[in-house]
Structures are given as structure tokens and as C-alpha cells.
Design a protein that fits this description.
The protein has 319 residues and is α/β, with parallel strands linked by helices. It has helices at residues 18-30, 87-93, 109-113, 155-164, 177-198, 208-227, 236-246, 254-260, 271-281, 286-299; strands at residues 10-14, 34-38, 45-49, 54-58, 60-62, 73-76, 99-103, 121-127, 130-135, 138-142, 149-152, 171-174. The strands form two sheets. The protein has an eight-stranded mixed beta sheet, sandwiched between helices. The protein has a four-stranded mixed beta sheet with strand order 4-3-10-9, covered by helices on one side.
Length: 319
């Protein structure tokens, strides 16, 4: 187990949605560090529902980057496509002494964030916990793994694990972080686009024809992942589909809920990342390219107008 950091540090959480809201509330509740939130609108605090208890965490929240000052840590928890939009925050919060933990989907965290981080060190992280935003100031945490976050097993990754020690979020440093990143991406390149395109929850993945499509999509993605350094066995596509089948059929995905709400979704960080990696390695990706084109076309029409949904929202562990 990681030993807690002996010193109190300053931490800013950029984005207080389902992922960032949970991170902020758990850090504030542990009261080992000085925590602030950064969001569009000010809040007086956050309520976090966990399987064990409900936490009411007081939290100072800034809504204007001009009021921000440099901190020791930034936890970047916006959607990947919103990264450039928070550049003014990163400029104010970061110095070369700052570390930025990127809690976003996809791969290429360092390449995406480092140019905006004012010389700060960027720590890529994989999110495994199931987060649901119930209201602007209320989030729900569900555990779906034996750890909630994974980071590289290096000095910066271990420093992040120490930062989160004592909170409800367990951090796993990994010596094979590339494989873990791609393994998480395998789940997202199937579940997210298919649920968003069909406007059905994860039950659609149990259709024999959709299941077969998922296997073909995963076989294509695994080929790219191996070229990018991931260590996958021959049965990796089947294993990924087996994992997806363990998720409740009534659950949705972040892209599904974004489409219902008329919000733009992060297709470029998911299937788009596979297409880009395939181009780098000279590997054709026709299935990922097709899904990317279809979802980009929908993205261009998203204007914030919500679509009706009969069932109550529940988020699958894709963020």
C-alpha cells in the first residue's frame, strides 16, 4: 500500500462532473490537502453518494480562471474534447513545479495536455470507477474494480497514488500502463459508439449480430494496439466482450447520455484515437473509421437540445 504523503498540498480539480466531482469530494472528505474546484458555476460544496455512506464535502469552487493561483496538483477531469477550452485555467494553475493528473478517456494524455500546461509534468491516469452526476452538486460513486484509478509506475505516478491515499479512490501504479490504457480503450470503442448510434443501452450489445460486430471491431483495434506497444493475447477481443457482458444491460455509456442531452461527445478520443494510431503504423481501420465518420456527423448537429428517454439514467463504467 502507498504511504500517505507527509505534506499538505494544494489540489485543483478542473471539471466537476461525474468523474471530477467524485475525485473532488473524496479529496475534500479526506481533508489531507487543500482542495478547490474549478467549474462554470460556483458551488458551496458537493454531496457524494457511495455504497457505504453519503458524504457532504465542503468545497471552495472557482468559476473564473482569473481568480486562480498556482497549485501543486491539477486533476483534469473534463471530456477530452474540452481540453483546449480549459487552457486559461491550466495557464493560471500550473507552473513547472505542478503535476497534472489527466482523468480522461482515450490515449495520448501527455501529448494532448502538455502543450497547454505551462511546463507542468503530466501524469496520465485511467479511470475505472462508475460515476453518475445526479445534480450540479451531487454525484454517485459505484465500485466496479479492485481499484478506481491506474497510473504509470514511475515517480509521478507514485506521487499521485500518495496524493489519493486515504480517500475512497484506490490507485494502482502499473509497469505496463500502455497495455492498461489500450485495454480500457477496447471497451470504449465498442460500447460508446454503438449505444450512441442505436440510442439503446448496453442491452444492444447482447444481440448476436451486434456482439459479432463488436468482436470484429475489437480484432481491428487489437492489431493497432499491439503495434502501439500493448501486450495482448490472441483471445483479447473475446475477453473484452466478456467484460462488457458483465455490465448491467440497463446501463448506458457517457456517449449515449451525451447524445440524449444534445451534447457533443468524445468520439475523437476513442475511435478517432484508434484511426490515428492506425495511420501512424500503416494499419487499416475501416470499422473504427466508419464509426468515427458517423459519430462526427452527429456531433456536428448536437446543439444541447435534449432527447426524451423513458428509463432513468444510469452510467456504465466508461469514464
Amino acid at each position: 500500500m502507498t504511504s500517505p504523503s507527509p505534506e499538505r498540498q494544494s489540489v485543483a480539480i478542473l471539471g466537476l462532473g461525474s468523474i471530477g466531482g467524485i475525485a473532488a469530494a473524496t479529496l475534500a472528505d479526506a481533508d489531507r490537502h487543500d482542495v478547490i474546484g474549478c467549474a462554470r458555476r460556483p458551488l458551496d460544496g458537493l454531496t457524494l453518494e457511495t455504497p457505504e455512506r453519503t458524504i457532504k464535502a465542503p468545497l471552495r469552487v472557482l468559476s473564473d480562471p482569473a481568480t486562480a493561483a498556482p497549485v501543486d496538483w491539477v486533476l483534469l477531469a473534463t471530456k477530452a474534447q474540452d481540453t483546449e477550452a480549459v487552457a486559461p485555467w491550466l495557464t493560471r494553475l500550473c507552473t513547472p513545479a505542478t503535476r497534472v493528473a489527466v482523468l480522461q478517456n482515450g490515449i495520448g494524455h501527455v501529448e494532448r495536455v502538455a502543450p497547454l500546461a505551462n511546463g507542468a509534468r503530466v501524469v496520465p491516469a485511467i479511470v475505472y470507477y462508475n460515476g453518475e452526476r445526479l445534480a450540479a452538486d451531487r454525484v454517485r460513486l459505484r465500485y466496479v474494480s479492485d481499484h478506481e484509478l491506474a497510473v504509470p509506475d514511475d515517480d509521478d505516478g507514485r506521487a499521485f497514488a500518495a496524493l489519493m491515499a486515504g480517500t475512497a479512490l484506490r490507485v494502482r501504479p502499473s509497469a505496463d500502463f500502455v497495455t492498461l490504457q489500450w485495454r480500457k480503450l477496447l471497451l470504449n470503442v465498442v460500447a460508446n459508439p454503438i449505444t450512441a448510434l442505436t440510442l439503446q443501452r448496453q442491452t444492444v450489445l447482447r444481440r448476436p449480430d451486434i456482439y459479432a460486430l463488436g468482436l470484429d471491431l475489437l480484432a481491428e483495434t487489437v492489431q493497432v494496439a499491439r503495434a502501439d506497444g500493448a501486450r495482448f493475447d490472441a483471445d483479447e477481443p473475446a475477453r473484452a466482450m466478456d467484460v462488457l457482458m458483465t455490465y448491467g444491460s440497463e446501463l448506458g455509456t457517457s456517449m449515449y447520455f451525451d447524445r440524449l442531452a444534445g451534447r457533443r461527445f468524445e468520439i475523437d478520443a476513442l475511435n478517432g484515437a484508434v484511426v490515428a494510431a492506425g495511420e501512424r503504423h500503416g494499419i487499416p481501420t475501416p470499422l473504427n473509421r466508419m464509426l468515427l465518420a458517423l459519430l462526427r456527423a452527429i456531433n456536428d448537429t448536437q446543439d444541447g437540445s435534449a432527447m426524451p428517454e423513458r428509463a432513468p439514467a444510469a452510467r456504465a463504467p466508461d469514464r
